[in-house]
Amino acid sequence: MNTFECTCERCHLRTLFFNHISKNDIRSICTQKVEHRYEKGDVILCEGDPIKNFLYLKEGLVKLSRTTSDDKEQIISFAKPFDFVSLLSVFSSENYHYTVTAIEDSTTCELDLGQVKEIARENGVFTLDLMTRVSEATDRIILDNLEIKQKHLHGRVAYVLLFFAQNVYGRDDFELPISRKEIAEYIGMTTENVIRTLSEFKKDKIIRIFGKEIDIIDRERLESISLHG
Amino acid sequence: MNTFECTCERCHLRTLFFNHISKNDIRSICTQKVEHRYEKGDVILCEGDPIKNFLYLKEGLVKLSRTTSDDKEQIISFAKPFDFVSLLSVFSSENYHYTVTAIEDSTTCELDLGQVKEIARENGVFTLDLMTRVSEATDRIILDNLEIKQKHLHGRVAYVLLFFAQNVYGRDDFELPISRKEIAEYIGMTTENVIRTLSEFKKDKIIRIFGKEIDIIDRERLESISLHG
DNA sequence: CGCGGCTTTGATGTTCATCAAGTAAAGTGG
DNA sequence: CCACTTTACTTGATGAACATCAAAGCCGCG
Fold first, then answer.
1. CATH number at residue B162
2. What is the distance, to the nearest Å, from the Cα of residue B88 to the centroid of all Cα atoms in its chain?
3. pLDDT, tens digit, for every residue of B171-216?
4. Fewer CB in 10 Å around end: N or C, chain A?
5. Which PANTHER family does the entry link to (chains A, B) (predicted)?
6. Among B57, B92, B126, which residue terminates a domain?
7. Could you tell me if B20 and B114 lie in one domain?
């Protein structure tokens, strides 16, 4: 009866659902799931849109952002596969409180929210797993924002660079998926000062920069700045 | 069979559980629940402690705080009854990531976490309700922190005053339950500047101050400062 | 009563936003 | 493919916002 199982090779539903969900449920979810491809820059979903689907990121990288009370863009967090995308408001609101935009080519998988809730109602173990995942994701957002809040400009920029190096790319040289302006929108500073700080890091031989290419040369120093700078 | 039901007059479990939990489960939870009274200033639970109980606030007011990477106190949020207290890490960690302290005389109700999880595993509807509540609480923390992040000192202080006036006490004159220093730890500024800002509000006849007593005279102006200041 | 923590105000310097101005890069229509 | 426009990037100069340091009054508590 394996013909009914989801065949997506790297489908995260597998690891989410563990063994706690029946073959029947997997079948009904998988047969109606919709995959979408997005290119870098595409808006995946929009602040204010009604929440109809349970959406997760299969591949790529996205940013979550919102408009502040005085109409400026503010980036809430970045999410990679395995981090759920529609976790912030799915179970607590009718509409999205944030916009999701692809910052690298991405693939999403959409499930019908009603159907997921139906399974959740009937399967507490599945729901507990889901809750754990949602909690982990929101905890991380809260902690990251608190950490950034208490740092100065230099520490914040260092923190972002280390975030991409460690959590996203797993290497010290990488191509920044976002603009200087977006870094500023994430850490709550101006674009000019983000650039100035990057230039100083470069002058101090902590990083190398070629446009969007970043190469961390002195990781120890960068970590120290991130902690105490 | 009403003798088995929880008799706490204002027990939030009732509204949480709705009709989605059996009398048996209510009985077993209620017979082993433990109520605790705390006085203003008492530490209810401590960063690093293992999470053994599912804890909620029955009466009073508490603050959630943590120690930052460079050893300063940082206040994450304030919680009043009906906001769950042990919601940040309960389902995503073995240990608390934050300290909970009573800032007014408070009563908590402790349930065995294992038992709550047991019910959750067997009752998906209950777990979905729980997830909704957890999501609402974490969403609020995230949004509040994002709002504060993007404001200047004056806007942040105004925001805190309005928070207590509107969300906690429901009136424009109230006694501040926290010190100037704690306001500073919440909004990420220094104590001196919080005091200076309060003094300016007073001089501008926006508020009156007598020690911890606050009286908002010009609410409209304060709201405008909170939004655009 | 005296100690420690909270509060308050002032003076000073640092950090950061804003303004300005110019260069590079990237998309757009003919 | 090139002129054109727009957007991103960069640096410098200036002033505003804020932290830090210092000093003194206040208050609660042992």
1. 1.10.10.10
2. 11
3. 999 999 999 999 999 999 999 999 999 999 999 999 999 999 999 9
4. N
5. CRP FAMILY TRANSCRIPTIONAL REGULATORY PROTEIN, LISTERIOLYSIN REGULATORY PROTEIN
6. B126
7. yes
Percentage of chain B modeled with pLDDT above 90 = 58
Residue B28 lies in a domain: yes
The verdict on pTM exceeding 0.90 is yes
CATH number of the domain enclosing A115: 2.60.120.10
User: What's the domain range around A18?
Assistant: 2-145
Chain C positions within 7 A of any protein Cβ atom are: 6-11, 15-20, 25-26
Closest in A92, A93, A139 to B88, CB measured: A139
* DSSP state, residue B168: I
B54 contacts chain A (CB < 8 A) = no
Q: Is B93 on the interface with A (CB under 8 A)?
A: yes
CA distance B38 to chain A (A): 27
Buried b (16+ CB within 10 A) or exposed e, B146-159: bbbbbbebbbbbbb
The rounded distance, in Å, linking the Cα atoms of B152 and B228 is: 9
B166–chain A Cβ distance below 8 A for any pair: no
pLDDT above 80 for B84? no
Distance CA A189 to C1' C16 in A: 8
Phi, psi of A11, deg, nearest 5:
-65, 125
A118 with A40, same domain: the answer is yes
For residue B131, give the nearest of A123, A131, A227 by CB distance: A131
In terms of domains, do B18 and B75 share one? yes
| Nearest 10 degrees: Cα torsion B38, B43, B46, B49 | -40
Total domains, chain B: 2
